[in-house]
């Protein structure tokens, strides 16, 4: 069992930057056994994949819409995963969710544990 808590969301102007964090907790040293992902969901839309990072942090994967602007990283010693967001656009406005998976996947159904989400709003 892994508990995930996101933080760092907020309001930012278009072109600005924001960093959202996810803190993981659970029994034993389980964090490093999970691939971690970020997803987002805008009002009236389905939850969509944003980025993923492998267990060691050696591999990353990004949605085409965020490549070159968003960057995922993790610190297994601190049980945290970060999403650095630069050059933000109004279309990036959504609730951002952190998730953990035992598989290497981009699909919502492939993730086993989810945080409660943090709101990111980009004004034009």
Descriptive notes:
With 124 residues, the protein is mainly β. The protein contains no helices and eleven strands. The protein has strands at residues 3-7, 10-13, 18-25, 35-41, 48-53, 60-62, 70-75, 80-85, 94-101, 113-114, 118-123. The strands form two sheets. Strands 2, 4, 5, 6, 9, 10 and 11 form a seven-stranded mixed sheet that branches. A four-stranded antiparallel sheet has the order 1-3-8-7, with no helix packed on it. A hairpin with a 6-residue loop joins β4 and β5 (48-53). It is globular, with a radius of gyration of 13 Å. 31% of the residues are buried. The mean pLDDT is 96.
Task: Outline the biggest β-sheet.
Answer: 7 strands, mixed
Strand content: over 45%
Distance between the termini: 40 Å
The total beta strand count reads: 11
Please describe the topology of this protein:
Elements: E1 3-7, E2 10-13, E3 18-25, E4 35-41, E5 48-53, E6 60-62, E7 70-75, E8 80-85, E9 94-101, E10 113-114, E11 118-123
Parallel strand pairs: 2-11
Antiparallel strand pairs: 1-3, 3-8, 4-5, 4-9, 5-6, 7-8, 9-10, 9-11
What is the compact description of this entry?
With 124 residues, the chain is an all-beta fold. It is built from no helices and eleven strands.
Which key terms come to mind for this protein?
124 residues; seven-stranded mixed beta sheet; four-stranded antiparallel beta sheet; 11 strands; globular
